[in-house]
Write a structure and sequence with these properties.
Elements lengths: L5 H21 L2 H5 L2 E8 L2 E8 L10 E7 L1 H6 L1 E8 L7 H19 L5 E2 L6 E8 L5 H12 L3 H13 L1
Antiparallel strand pairs: 1-2, 2-3, 3-4, 4-6, 5-6
Helix pairs in contact: 1-5, 4-6
């Protein structure tokens, strides 16, 4: 008789919650009209979800994306962070991209006024971490609302990528 690892068990148990997020997103105008896609997968501590636009170089899940991981610790605390990653690999000139985007992104993020938000001007990959409190019954709506807020950064990201192509 084989046993299931705790991380795989958490993935199985929490997959429906992540699907609630995806269903919420798929009903939102910005998601439908903006060429967005999502990926839900297992990782060493549970389950994660990425949300990205088609032009964000995220075809290998290593490009620009919004991402959260859901672990037992998150479930116990009823909170998680959604991060903006600017490539886990050097798929383009991140320093140049950041020079076109960081100041504008920081201005938008500061306007949110969300306690505990971390914005880095210097880290090439880890740009932003937005804390989100959730309830079991409201998880889909609460995470989708936070992703909607983060989607306000999409025009800045798109513009930064367009500027890279022009240079």
């Amino acid at each position: 008789m084989s046993t299931i690892s705790p991380s795989w068990q958490l993935f199985i148990e929490q997959h429906p919650q992540c699907m609630k997020v995806l269903r919420q997103l798929s009903n939102l105008d910005w998601y439908q009209a903006g060429g967005w896609s999502s990926f839900i997968g297992p990782y060493h501590a549970g389950i994660y979800m990425q949300v990205a636009k088609g032009n964000w170089h995220n075809y290998g899940l290593d490009g620009i994306h919004f991402e959260f991981g859901l672990t037992q610790e998150n479930l116990d605390a009823k909170s998680l962070s959604i991060d903006l990653h600017v490539c886990h690999k050097n798929l383009f000139n991140r320093e140049q991209f950041n020079s076109h985007t960081v100041e504008r992104m920081e201005e938008v993020v500061n306007g949110w006024g969300v306690d505990g938000t971390r914005f880095s001007r210097t880290n090439l990959t880890e740009r932003l971490s937005l804390p989100v409190r959730f309830t079991k019954s409201g998880f889909g709506k609460q995470i989708a609302a936070a992703l909607t807020q983060m989607s306000e950064l999409a025009p800045i990201i798109d513009d930064g990528l367009d500027r890279l192509e022009l240079s």
